Amino acid sequence: MKDLLIAVGQEGKEKALSRFLARLLETGAVDGLVVAAEAAPGVITHVLAKDPRLVERAARPLAPVMPSSAAQVVSEVVRRRPSGKVAAVLRPCEGRALVELMKLKQAAPENVVAIGIDCAGTYDPVAYRDAGGNADGLEPREACRVCLNPAPLEDALPGITLGFIGLDDSEGIFVSVHDRLDPAVAAVVDELGLASGEGAGRKRSKAVQALVQERQGAYDAFLSIAGISGIEAFARELAACTGCHNCRVACPVCYCKECVFDTDTFEYETGQFLRKAGRKGALKMPSETVLYHLTRMNHMSLSCVGCGQCEQACPADLPLFRLFAMASRRTQEIFGYVPGRSLAEELPFTTFREQELEPR
Amino acid sequence: MGSGEEFEPKIVAFLCNWCTYTGADLAGVSRIQYPPNVRPIRVMCSGSVDPMYILKALLDGADGVLVGGCHPGDCHYVSGNYKARRRLAVLSAILDEFGIDSRRVWFSFISASEGALFAKTVGDMTAALKALGPNPARALWIA
Question: How far, in Å, are A138, B24, B103, B118 from residue B122 at the CA level?
Answer without folding.
Answer: 57, 10, 14, 6
